[in-house]
Every structure is written in C-alpha cells, then in structure tokens.
Amino acid sequence: MKRMWTLLAGVLATTLALTACAGTTRAPSSAGSTFTYAFHLNVVTEWDPAVSYSNESIAMANLYESLTRYDAAAKKVEPLLATSWTKSADGRRWTFTLRDDVTFHTGRKLDSTAVKESIERTKKLAGGAAYIWDPVSSIETPDPTTVVFDLAYPVALDLVASSGYGAYVYDTQAAGTGDLAAWFKKAKDAGTGPYTVDTWTAGAETELRLKAYDDYWGGWTDQQYRAVEFRVTPEVTTAWQLLQRDDVSFVDRLTPQIFEQATTTKGVGTSETSSFQNLLALYNTASGPMADIRVRRAIQMLTDTKAIISALHGAAAPADGLIPPGLIGEGDASVKPDATVAKKLLADAGYDAGHPLRLSLTYAQGDKDQGLYVTLLGSALKAAGVQLDARPMQWDAQWTRGKSADPSQRQDIFVMYWYPDYADPLSWFANLFKSAKDPYFNLAYLEDASVDASVASLPKETAIAPAQAARSYLDLQRRIVVDDAAVTPLYLIKYQRAYSADFTGYVDNPAYPNVVFVHDLRTK
Amino acid sequence: MTTATAHPVAVRRTRRRSPGLGRVLLRRLAHAAVVVAGVVCLTFVIARQLPGDEAVTAAGARATPEQLAAARERLGLDDPLPLQLWHYVSGLARGDLGTSLHTRQPVVSDLGRALPASLELVGSAMVLAVLIGLPLGVIAARFARRRTDLAVRTGSMLLVSVPVFWLALAVQLLLSTKLGWFPVAGEYDRVLDSTSPLTVYTNITAFDALITGNWPILLSTLHHLVLPALVVAAYPTGVVAQMTRAALIEESQQDHVRMERALGFRPLEILLRFSLRPAISPVLTLLALIFAYTLVNSVLVEAIFNWPGIGTYTADAIRSVDTPAIAGVTLVIALVYVTANLAVDLTQIAIDPRTRKS
C-alpha cells in the first residue's frame, strides 16, 4: 500500500512537472500569418449563404462577396464584385457592371449568369434575409459582365446588394449535379472571397479555420494574413487574457472596465464604434393606460437616457433618434427629460396618489444593460407616483405576449433591440411603425396614416433622390418619436474591440456587425 | 455475529429470501428505467409548457411570418402534445434526440463531441481528487485533533466552499497570465493540428493521443488540462479528504484497532494496513455521486477555460432556448446520475451482500 501511494504521488508530480515544463506553445496568431478571432459564441450554424442569417456572418464575410459594400464612415455604397452601376429615372431598373477577373473558389469564373443564378436561388429558398430581394421581379444578363435587375417597385438596390445577409454571390453549380444544400452542409463554400474553408469542427474551441484563396482577385501581399482562425471564447476575461498573451489577434467584445484597461495596455489596439443596433422602448399606443398620449409623453420625459448611458460606463452611445449615425436620415428627434412636465401630464391624464398609474414592461431576460434601464426607469417612475411591473422574459415568450391577439394581454412598454439587415433606415419604420391588423414587430401598435404613407414612399425616394429621402426620414422620426410619442430610442450599443497592435487597417463597419475583413489588414 | 447466534432454520429462510445478483440487477435497472422515463416525460412537458414559441428559436428572432409557419410545421409544434411526446419518445428509441435549434446539428452528435471532453476533464479531476484528497484524509486522521488535522480540515473546507468560478479566474490569472506556466484556455495547442494531426477515436483527446502515440498532442492536452482539472477537483478533493478523515477516525475506534495497537503496530501502519480498506468503502460510494455532481458543476469552469464540453454546450443551449439540446443534456445527466447510482448499488452489493435485501 505504501509503495502504491509513493508511485501515485510520483506519477502526479512527474505529470505536473512535465506539463509545466512543456511551456505554452504560442498560437500562430500574430507570430505567423494567422489571424485569430476570439468570438464569444459558436461561429457557424448555417453554411448555405442563401439562408445564413446568424453568427456565421463573421466568417461568411471573408468567404463570400456581394455586388457592393456599404461604407458607414462615408455613408456611401462602394463597388465590390460590381465595378459600377446605374439606375433608371424611376428607380425600377438597375444595371450592374461586374469585375471580369473574379473566380469562385470552385474555379468557375464569375459572370452575370452566376450572379443571376445565385440571387434567384436565394429568392427561391426564401430563408434568412432573402426577403431583401422581394422587389426584384426579373434579372437579365445581356452580356457576361452586365446584370440588369427589374424591380416591381423602386428601392435602392445598391444598398440591398451590400447586405451582410442574403446578398452573397456564390457558385450555384458547386455541387455539380448533386444537391447544393447538402453540399454546403459539409462545411464547403462556393464564394469569391479572399479566404476559403480549411477545417470546421463543430463544438470545438477552434471551431473554424480559413485559408487564403490564392487566386483571389484582390491579390496578396506579404503583409496579409494567410489564414484565419475562430476561437470560441465565451468568457470576456479569458478572451482578454488570451489577447494579452498574444494567443488571439482580436476580441469582439469586452466589458467597459476591461476595455478601459485595454486602452492603456502596451501592444494592444482598441476601437470604439457606435453600432446600428439601438435599444427601443416601444409604447403601447393602442390599449391600456399608454393609449393616452399624455401618459406616453410623461414616460418619455421621465426617461433620462443620459443617465442610462452614463451608468453603462461606455458600453452605449447616445441615440438622438431612431436612425443611428452612419445611415441616411439621421438627426435629432429626441425628447428632453422633464419630471415636472411629466407629473403634470400624468395629473392631466387623471393619475395621482389616489389613482396611481401602473404600467407593465417586458424586456430581455439576462440582458444586464436592459435590466439597468428598467431599474433606472422604475426609480424615476416611482418618484412620479407610477408603479412599474417589469418582467424579464426570453425573447420568444416576450414576443409571443407582444403579438397576443387579445390586447389586454399585451404589455404597456416593450423593450427590444433593433438593427437593419442592410444599411437602409427603412427597416425601423417598415417593421416597427407601419400599421398592421395583426401585430408582428410593430409592437407599439401604432396606426398613423401619415407614417404609413411615408413608409410607402420612402423606398422610391431613397432610390432616386437620396438627399430628399434623408429629410423625409428625419421628419418621419420626429413624427413617430415626438408627435406620436410611440417610442423612446434609449441608446445605441457601442462596439468595444481590442486587438493586437501587430496589424493595421482595422475598420469597424457597423453595417457588418462583428465582421473583420481580414484581407484588408496589414501586419507590421 | 447475528447469524452465528440465530436459529439454523431462520438462517436458511433468510438466505432463501436474499435475491440473486441477477434479480437485484434487474430490479435496479427497472428502477433506473422508470427514473429516466420520468425525466424524459417531465423535461418534454415542461419545455412545451414554458411561455414562448420554439419556432422562433428555430426560425430566428427576425423570422418572417412565413418562415415561422414553416418552422412550426417542420417541428410538429401544431400537433397535440401527446402526439409530440410520442414522436419524441419514438425518436429516442431510435437514438434520435432531435436537432439542435442552435447548432442545427443532431443533438446526439453534439453530445457525442461534448460529453467525452467533459468526461476527460471531470475524470482527470476525480483522479486528482483521489490522489490528493485521500492522503490528506489519512494525514488528518493520523494527526487527529492536532494542528495538522486542523490545517487539513480548514483547507478542505475552503476547497469545498470556494466559488468555483472565482477559483478558476484566480488560477487562470495567476498561473497563466502572470506566471505563464500554463495556457490560458483551450483543449490543446491547435497549431499541432497541422504538425501532428490527431486521429480521433473516442473524442477524449488525451486518450486518443495516447493510444495513437501522438505525444505532442498528449503533452499539450495534459498541459492544458492541469488548471481546469485542478479547479474542478477542488470540491471533490475537499469532500474526499473530509470523508476519509471521518471514516478513518470512526474506524480507529473499532476493537481491532485496540488489538493492533496492543500487538505493537505503529499508528500509521494501523491506518494504512488495517483501517483504510474498510473505511474507504463509503468514500468510494460517495465518489460515484460526486462524479455526477461535478459533471454538472463544471459548466462555469468549462466556459472560463474554453473547454468544449457539455457545460459549454449546456450554457449555449440555455442561452438560446434550444429545447431539443436542453432535453438531450438533461437526459444525459439523468443517465449519468442513474448509472452512478447503479454503480454505487452494485459496488455496495459486491462489498456487502447483505445490501441485496434492501
């Protein structure tokens, strides 16, 4: 027995000593030509670019390309697979001219037929964000580098074509005579992007590895990363430690405290960018106490967005209106907090100490930032004699309650994030504020004929007269936020990134959330 | 003692009533099957009765009405609940746990990847717990009610009560980031995939590396395993140390110990040669249950160390309201508990045949 214990102790000590002496083998991130992205969730849930609509966008954007790309800093659509495009005067006919030096990873040359086939397949599958192509009634291919889209109604198709979801051009013949959907499921790609799939191991820590596509039309230099790895790193503190040890090149999210530390850490670069994702408090304009506009205005005035943003310590940016900076139509459409006026409005609406107002609110379970807003709002309302019954819920439960056919079952305040699928502010208005018999995402239940008319005319305006559309969007925001008091835009999520200082060229483009266009980077 | 003084006929009756090992095993298996069936039904019904709509998770938070309707039809959510349960149970009988709404992969294959990684981590932790906890318990018992005993008891109490996520973050910060002795996270250095590719048989990386003689990956895996295994081992180590100490002290009050002392055996010799074997039985019994508990308890450790096990998978499933995955994990955990209990029962029967009667 004594010998057995000695032996076991020896084995343990030897193992520990051996492993400790082995030293950490440095991950090939900055040391080699591999860019390692520490992402907080699983990366790929869907390989088919036609229906992909989730986390995998961070990989897809390096595998696939679309006809155009949106530059949020310049508020401009830039060429990508298309070198140029024109539109008819009525905005219903768009002609794109393609690059003629592009090949898919399958070896096939990109031409107008390939573009037509991929967009038609995406439309046909009708999954993910395929709806973005709904306006397209037909696609013509007069020559190999020209694609002509005829639209059922005018939209800014250059913006549609820049979408990070559903707009990728891919080789529909990649599987030959086989089933393309099944082919994609085997973790294969058929894009034109700078990288192609090397390995994918579902559930593994290093889930996905991409390698350079040698024949990429954009070419390669010695300063570019030849491989990309995605490491699933749920814990922020772990991601931050991995970055400090140079085990990863990029961390997509940090806590404000760690971000503050990162800004002063040698060898680490940081970036802060306002996203296109805003948190909205949608007010029930159709039933319950908030159907009275005086109550809605009072709640708007009791909502101190500056205090919320301050309490979030840098994780949020001000949202002056519904449309975030970087999109057309942005501008101030906010309501200033004023507790005195709010109390007067509530009194006018018939609420006082003897007849207190009770409001129900639903928000996302587990979202600490939303929880903070709810706490601050609850305090402000309590001071004004209003009782807030706030319920954290899973999204599907919250949404189901919001869509309830029985208005008495719905909440008074619905808190949710919204972001556009592509860089067009129409997404907020068409989805959230256009009247509908059965509520879907329009959870303020707004019925305003002038809003509906604007929503109907704005796509055409955006297509043919963007400057005028920008003014119309600003007016529309003021109509909904100020005149209808249907919503309070609370704040914009701020992206806080940290990355290795070993490379340059990183631009955080909110039109493509969390995406790093790795080919654009240059190692020092 | 009782048998020796009892009437011979009564002894024979008692022996006849004592069921055979096969019957006991069958009875235990039947109990286990009832428990598992109960867990399956309960999990399914609770999942279906929760407020919300599984189709939203399947089709995505921004699904169009048409996409939602298609998801409802595909998942059979419009069917009556008993029919849905029947489809689920008949699927289980075919080894089909459904498809994860989050990973879009069969839950069976997801668990087939995640469970071995957790078993590797928790198994290593349990080995560490025995290797460290048992000697500590022996030492504490040997020096009972002295300073050494107090130190062991205090230490083991700390190990049992310290929050596992705090310990994980602390050792990660100190031993990885500050001292650089161990990797921060991960299962092994993935750069080795290109230089020493691993042939996978069991998905237990260290085992696969060992049986294929892939020493670079084996060494790297052990190196990566040290910190998470130590953290996961904290709780079972404390429990094993305390249980061993208590069992040995109790054993030291038995008559045979007085006789061994009288015969001139040294205290440590008495502990190791005569007391440890009978005292270790309840500790081993407890280990099986601690194993199952530790498997569940390792969720946060896996997340902090990027260990791709069932804990990480469960956290993702819960976060994304992935009902099939949650049900699959629940079933697996239930199976682990049931198997552990069964193993305990059988071990006890092997050690003490009298327990067959119960």
From TrEMBL, chain B:
Transmembrane found in the keyword field: yes
Bilayer topology: Multi-pass membrane protein
One Pfam family per UniProt: BPD_transp_1
Domain spans labelled ABC transmembrane type-1: 115-348
TM stretches of this protein: 25-47, 121-144, 156-175, 215-235, 283-305, 325-344
PROSITE patterns listed in its UniProt record: ABC_TM1
InterPro entries: BPD_transp_1_N, MetI-like, MetI-like_sf
SUPFAM superfamilies the record matches: MetI-like
UniProtKB keywords: Cell membrane, Membrane, Transmembrane, Transmembrane helix, Transport
Cellular localisation: Cell membrane
Main location: membrane
Family statement: Belongs to the binding-protein-dependent transport system permease family.
Name by which UniProt lists this protein: ABC transporter permease
